[in-house]
Amino acid sequence: SSRVVEIQSQMSERAVELLGLPEDRPCLLLDVGCGSGLSGDYISEEGHYWIGMDISPAMLDVAVEREVEGDLLLADVGHGIPFRPGMFDGCISISAVQWLCNADKKSHSPPKRLYRFFSTLYTALARGSRAVLQLYPENSEQLELITSQAMRAGFTGGMVVDYPNSAKAKKFFLCLFVGTSGTLPKGLGTECANEELHQAKFTNERTRFRNVKGKSVKKSRDWILEKKERRRRQGKEVRPDTKYTGRKRRPHF
């Protein structure tokens, strides 16, 4: 339907905008879950080149019929991104990555598939570039699973939420940086809202310290929690957080 096409195009535009591409040269982008190539049309219009991956032969057939300008690859991104290191100047994905959370076959392990996807994507992206993945998470656990596997694979960044206070227009963009930690872009429609509150509700603890300019004060409770969180992401044994974490002890006489 034309409404779906319109929403898809808007999200593609927003994703490309969040990539922050250089304006003086054409870039090569990867479109994950490219479908019939609607995002690709926008990328081509902007003067960039693209390669699209999708798991659906039917969707790719439509893209071929529509004579899109990008190259197309039939593949399951859960098996990894099969391109040379540093090949892409950026990656976008519109409402596709959440499918990796489903185990369609007995052998499928969502965390493993997500990690395989993110770690190979990290390699295929040029240093200093970004991946912007718009997704429809089912719940905060799913969001947490996706984000944690991305961070495990080496990405920095986090979730940009557009229109957090609108049930209809709310959109999640996982904005990931390769090899540099950029400043996370602001979500649209957050100016008037009490943004912190609404974002935190859904993205759990993890982004609590990320939006603050600068780092947490050394040895403060936040600093300790961040450090423990980083250790957990690296798969290390870490004691659970409690109300005593980071509390000052009374001096002993």
TrEMBL record:
The keyword Protein biosynthesis does not apply. One of its GO terms (biological process) is rRNA (guanine-N7)-methylation. Residues 235-244 have a biased composition (Basic and acidic residues). GO terms for molecular function: rRNA (guanine) methyltransferase activity. It is found in: Cytoplasm; Nucleus. The keyword Methyltransferase applies. Residues 30-106 form the Methyltransferase type domain. Residues 176-250 form the 18S rRNA (guanine(1575)-N(7))-methyltransferase Bud23 C-terminal domain. Keywords: Cytoplasm, Methyltransferase, Nucleus, S-adenosyl-L-methionine, Transferase. One of its GO terms (cellular component) is cytoplasm. InterPro entries: Bud23-like, Bud23_C, Methyltransf_11, SAM-dependent_MTases_sf. It catalyses: a guanosine in 18S rRNA + S-adenosyl-L-methionine = an N(7)-methylguanosine in 18S rRNA + S-adenosyl-L-homocysteine. It comes from the Eukaryota. Its main location: cytoplasm. Residues 229-253 are annotated as: Disordered. Heterodimer with TRMT112; this heterodimerization is necessary for the metabolic stability and activity of the catalytic subunit BUD23. Interacts with GRIP1. S-adenosyl-L-methionine-dependent methyltransferase that specifically methylates the N(7) position of a guanine in 18S rRNA. Requires the methyltransferase adapter protein TRM112 for full rRNA methyltransferase activity. Involved in the pre-rRNA processing steps leading to small-subunit rRNA production independently of its RNA-modifying catalytic activity. Important for biogenesis end export of the 40S ribosomal subunit independent on its methyltransferase activity. Locus-specific steroid receptor coactivator. PANTHER family: 18S RRNA (GUANINE-N(7))-METHYLTRANSFERASE-RELATED, METHYLTRANSFERASE-RELATED. Belongs to the class I-like SAM-binding methyltransferase superfamily. BUD23/WBSCR22 family. This is 18S rRNA (guanine-N(7))-methyltransferase. It comes from Sylvia borin.
